[in-house]
Amino acid sequence: MKQKKSVWDHADTALKLWILAMLLCIVSKFFEGTPVQWLLILSGVVIAVAAVVYRFQKVRCPHCASHMTAAKGKPKRCPDCGGKLL
């Protein structure tokens, strides 16, 4: 049976998308003055926006829907409701 993704798996996915977006913008510097540069920059911006939207939609407590942050590590329980995080 397929295991449900945890809150922190979603956070890692959003981080990977953000890193991909930044890499596209950095690589675009090598194509300066060409249409490829603008295509890479536009792709990077779109992926960055998608990463932010994904994070705000998916990285939430499954019990009370509050936003989770990993500022002090990855807690096992929700700081707001105390519910167990997957």
Would you mind describing this structure in some detail?
This protein is mostly helical and 86 residues long. It has one domain (1-86). It contains two helices and no strands. The chain has helices spanning 7-27, 35-58. Helix 1 (7-27) runs antiparallel to helix 2. The longest helix is centred in the middle third of the chain and has 24 residues, at 35-58. The radius of gyration is 17 Å and the shape is elongated. The relative contact order is 0.19. The model has no long low-confidence stretch (mean pLDDT 86).
In summary, what is this structure?
The protein is mainly α. The chain is built from two helices and no strands.
Summary tags:
86 residues; mainly alpha
List strands and helices in order, with pairings.
Elements: H1 7-27, H2 35-58
Helix pairs in contact: 1-2
Helix-strand sequence: HH
Beta-strand percent range: under 5%
How many strand units?
Answer: 0
CA(first)-CA(last) distance: 16 Å
Number of domains: 1
Determine Rg (CA atoms, Å): 17 Å
Low-confidence stretches: none
Structural class: mainly alpha
Overall outline: elongated
Biggest beta sheet attributes: none
Helix content: 40-55%
Tally of DSSP helical segments: 2
pLDDT averaged residue by residue: 86
